[in-house]
Amino acid sequence: MRHLTPQELKAQISTDPEVLLIDVREPWEHEAYSIGGTLIPLGDINVRMNEIPKDKTVIVYCEKGIRSVIAIQRLEAAGFTNLCNLTGGMKAWRGSVE
């Protein structure tokens, strides 16, 4: 599993328009604060994994980086190899990028 810091993600977003963000938090968390991307709550990841491409870089994030690791583990078990975790999640993003 690859990990990106908030600074690395910010740089990647600005240079790679094809990068896809997946937010695995709950809808209320996504509505309160989001850096974009597609909302697929962790509880839905197994039934919605067909929405995630396997041929693009996909960054998975949550609030602290725990749910995103779980989501990536489930997706990797299903054959995904193109996933990155945002280390520290939105908490780290807000603390270091904004």
Structure description:
This protein starts with a strand and ends with a helix. Strand 2, helix 2 and strand 3 form a beta-alpha-beta unit. It has 98 residues and is of the alpha/beta class. Helix content is 41%, strand content 17%. The protein has one domain: 3-Layer(aba) Sandwich (Oxidized Rhodanese, domain 1), CATH 3.40.250. The longest helix is centred in the C-terminal third of the chain and has 12 residues, at 66-77.
What's this, in brief?
This protein is of the alpha/beta class and 98 residues long.
Q: What tags apply to this protein structure?
A:
41% helix; 98 residues; alpha/beta; 5-stranded parallel β-sheet; globular
Helix proportion of residues, in percent? 40-55%
Strand segment count: 5
Distance between the termini: 26 Å
The number of domains is 1
CATH superfamily: Rhodanese-like domain
SS-derived structural category? alpha/beta
Number of helices: 5
Any idea of the CATH topology? Oxidized Rhodanese, domain 1
Task: Present the secondary structure layout.
Blueprint (H helix, E strand, L loop, with lengths): L1 E3 L1 H10 L4 E4 L3 H6 L5 E2 L5 H4 L9 E4 L4 H12 L5 E4 L2 H8 L2
Parallel strand pairs: 1-5, 2-3, 2-4, 4-5
